[in-house]
Each structure stands twice: as C-alpha cells, then as structure tokens.
C-alpha cells in the first residue's frame, strides 16, 4: 500500500509499504477513505517529537471502511464506515472505565519510555512516535486499529466523510478544551490560536453557553474564518497588546476562561518569544510557551485555563506566581475522544454544526509532502488539509 512516511525534519515521502495485518483478535483493518494533516503532525515534521524512526507512517486523523476483523470484534462488521479515535484505548483499565480514555494503562507498549520523563504513561497514539507506542498512522491506504471493539464508531451512510472525519481528533479536542473551562451563561472566553482546534474551541464555547468569544492569531485567513464561521471577536496579536486589549474588552476584569490552542511552537512578538526560539533551537528548552504565559497573565481572577495545544517537555519562565495568586484553575490533557464520539456525532446529525467548514484543501495522498509544506508555511490560505488515498 501507499503511505506517508517520515524520514527526518521537513522530510515526508509517499512510499510503498507492506499492508497491515491482524495481529490480535481485537484488531480491525480499515481501508482509509479520508485522512488529514493535523497541527500536531507539524511538531513531528518540524523535528520536535523524539523517538521517531525513518519510515514511520504518520497520521492520526482518519476514517474509512472495515475490510477485516479480528475474532473478538463484534461492534462493527465488514463494510461498515467508521471513524477512528486518535487515542488508542483498551476500554477496561482503571482509566478507561472512568472516561479518561487518553490515559489508558494498556495501549502503550513503550510506556517505560514515557515514564522516565513524565512519571506515568498516557495512552498509545496513532502515528505519533515510538514514545507513544510506535503505531503506524492513518495517512495511508490501510491501517490496523488495535482495540477496535471499543475504538471504532460506525457512521451513518448519509453523512459524508467531510462532516465526520474530525470526530477522530480536532472536534472533540476543541470541545473538551471548552468543556474544561466550566463555562457559565454570560462568560467571556478567550482563545489563543485560530487553527482548526481553535476554530472548534470557539464553536464549542458557544455551544456550552459562552456569551462572547475573543480569539487571537496572526494569519488573516484564520482570523477571517473565526469571525465569519464561528462568530468570534478577533484580534491580530502582531497589531495589539493582548493583555491591554483583553482588559479593555472585558471592563478590566479579564476573560472568565482562556484556552491555549497553540502549544509548543507558539510565535510571539516580544523579547521572551525570541528567548524561547533561541533556547529551543539549541535544545535548552523543549517548548515555546508564549501563548501559555499570556493565557495565565490575561485570565480573570478565579478564572479557568484550558490547554488544548500540545506540550512535549519542559517549559521556562512560566508565571506561576500569577496563576497561584489569582486562584486559577487549570485543566488539560490529550483528548478523551471515545467519551465525545457519540454526543458530538448527535450534534452533527442534529445540524448544530457542519465540521467541514475548516477544510481548505483536499489533495490525493500522493501529494501529502506538498500538503505538509503549505500547511506549515500557511501558503495558499491553507488552514486544513484532507488527504484522499487513491480511488477514494
């Protein structure tokens, strides 16, 4: 089959690799009909995720048709259209039983690697390094899905791929980011980053009762989408002082909740942002927490801080004194996708949201390297790339 393979920083190639096979009775083989390039994939593309090996298959947002099942998989049948959560979860461990699916104890065979750095291991992830299990990803023609008996969600035939593909990651991620804000009627929510996750965080904040959502970015087409498609009040952070702007827009109080939808590769305009870039370049710092610093300082006293952007290691110059003395509440984590699949599918079916609004580019799988380049460099007004394997 054809698959998108990683070969180093800024080097992905579409290559012929062996077809996946059933390895466990709980496995399924999926013929992929749609897959996407995620902002998290760019962290790998840019060389910031360790333990990648040349030839690893990328991708964690994918869906398709069941073509083969292990003997223990009874929830779907061959021929069903399904979406696949990007987190791999067993369904029976302590954490899965408590709806903390991204913390599964049984799906990362390389848990020892993560434990050395983080103390405990989260779930395995598709296409996201050997640190998180070394699982082949879904930017391919076929994929093996472990724990398919709890992970696959059957999709009604009347819903096109473009409306349900993002149930695999970015829609639940944006929704959980908003849910973590404990939004109450009348609340003002601020969102850092208007990429695809930020767009869904804005939509979700309104679904959960926010009165106003203020969003920041520096890319004009992202700001336009957030304003026109998501009804956000938007500001270009290269043109305003975020802290001062938020005080003015909130009567001096600050936002009731702040969402960091940027993560480890944040850009900025101040001296601290330059400091982060230098330290990250020489590997004295793993992440650039520009957005996180702004979130903490800008949030209202007693407010909520939600982290949806990915952080990978150790951060510098975090204003914890501000967080502690303002009494902020933090919630974060990889998304518990399984928890949100059915409720968010119902929202799509009820017409509350058409998630396809974020798609700006649909390309054949063979053009994945081009897709990565335009997504990374924000060329051709690119916000979200969907890849289609041959014949799909």
Automatic annotation (TrEMBL):
InterPro entries in the cross-refs: ADH-like_C, ADH-like_N, ADH_Zn_CS, GroES-like_sf, NAD(P)-bd_dom_sf
Which superkingdom does the taxonomy of this entry point to? Bacteria
What Pfam families does the annotation carry? ADH_N (PF08240), ADH_zinc_N (PF00107)
Tell whether Cytoplasm is among the UniProt keywords. no
Q: Where is the Alcohol dehydrogenase-like C-terminal domain?
A: 196-265
Any idea where the Alcohol dehydrogenase-like N-terminal domain is? 25-156
Which keywords accompany this UniProt record?
Metal-binding, Oxidoreductase, Zinc
Q: What does this protein need as cofactor?
A: Zn(2+)
PANTHER family registered for this protein in UniProt: DEHYDROGENASE, ZINC-CONTAINING, PUTATIVE (AFU_ORTHOLOGUE AFUA_2G02810)-RELATED (PTHR42813:SF2), ZINC-TYPE ALCOHOL DEHYDROGENASE-LIKE (PTHR42813)
The family line of this record is: Belongs to the zinc-containing alcohol dehydrogenase family.
Per its record, how is this protein called by name?
Glutathione-dependent formaldehyde dehydrogenase
Which species is this UniProt entry from? Trichormus variabilis N2B
